[in-house]
Amino acid sequence: MWTSCTLLVLMVAFTVYTVIMRYIFKDPPFWGDTVALFCNIWLVLIAYALAVREREDIASEGIYVYLPARVVHVLRFSWQVLTFLFAAYLIWYGFDAARNVPGQFWELGGLPKKVPMMALPLCGTLVALLTASNIAEDLFDWRPQSTD
Asked: In this structure, are residues 98 and 114 in contact, taking their beta carbons and an 8 Å threshold?
């Protein structure tokens, strides 16, 4: 959570700094847009892992009030399996893309383009671990009971 919050603050700060320098001082930093974009991409991918951890599937939760409990359980489990498969896809093809992307960012001192691309396999790994945990909780009924 702290990483996501930090990336959000950094993204806003870099964007505001770039806009002020561009329109007020007429001297924009050549790296501002690129760094803000990296913060945005990493924020979204890490927030996806957080949403998986918290089981916050907004689009699917809305329909569950109209379905029987057994169907909801099957749909949630199916969604977890599909999420795990997507995570495996992110790991496999994300690592392949990061390893094979050519070039570098001259505005960031020659940073290889594979460094920011590593967000894909990292996100895939986080999502796979969290989804595997969710699936194990569902299969073995390990979910902690609330004390409300």
From this structure: yes
